[in-house]
Amino acid sequence: MDIKAGVQKVKLFLEESYNEMKKVSWPPKKDTLKAAYAVISFVIILAFFLGIVDYILAKITSWIVG
Hints:
By secondary structure, this protein is mostly helical. 88% of the residues lie in helices and 0% in strands. The protein is built from two helices and no strands. It is elongated, with a radius of gyration of 25 Å.
């Protein structure tokens, strides 16, 4: 494949992608922020929980090993 054909393929891909993005029904900003806050909250809670589990397992392991 020569460079000109490669450039044409990239150009066609970008044009098609742009046209498809115009068809997307985007959620309102309020809904997006609510979902983002839910995800961030869940990640923080999960990280805290896994930190506690890790701490407990480390203590048990050090107690067994010695």
